[in-house]
TrEMBL record:
<dbReference type="Pfam" id="PF10213">
    <property type="entry name" value="MRP-S28"/>
</dbReference>
<protein>
    <recommendedName>
        <fullName>Small ribosomal subunit protein mS35 mitochondrial conserved domain-containing protein</fullName>
    </recommendedName>
</protein>
<feature type="domain" description="Small ribosomal subunit protein mS35 mitochondrial conserved">
    <location>
        <begin position="113"/>
        <end position="180"/>
    </location>
</feature>
<dbReference type="InterPro" id="IPR019349">
    <property type="entry name" value="Ribosomal_mS35_mit"/>
</dbReference>
Amino acid sequence: GETSFEMSRQIRSHVRGLTSDGRHNFRRKKDLARYTHYRVMRAAGLTHDNPDEEVDRRGFVTPLTEMQDTSNLPRSPLHRRFFFPHTLSYKVYWGPPSVQDDPNAYEGSMVGCTVAARLEDLPLTQQQKERLVDIVGPECVDENTGVVALEADMFPDRNHNAAILGDMWEKLLREAAQPTPADPPE
């Protein structure tokens, strides 16, 4: 860390830059305030730019970092992730301002996303579709319409929930397409 004398000397040199007539030395008051705040926080060890950090975080995995490493997202909004018709929907809570700490606590504080697709639109054989229904369970399938729906509310952000749903669909389709040991090879 820097001593208070070195910090004050650096601040004085920045203030001199404000009063000089040079074009490249011009700094605004808010720039100085931000830089001074950063230097104080860095001296207190409260910034994340310490190159000599003693903790090795390479093996630290959270659900979000795991999803970032394993996800297979489209390259752009013009590219599709799945080539069968499906819908993506999410909940949005609208209402007047509330004095409660968590006005949506009864509905859950996360933003839930749902992806639904018809079984007949999936690129699977009839036997694979039956296996898919066995994997997800009957509560996720509407027997009248043949629609399979998956829901995720693991993250507070709907984009993260939508991404994890896409990963879940990919893994589900791969699992359903794999032959079971009782299935004869085709």
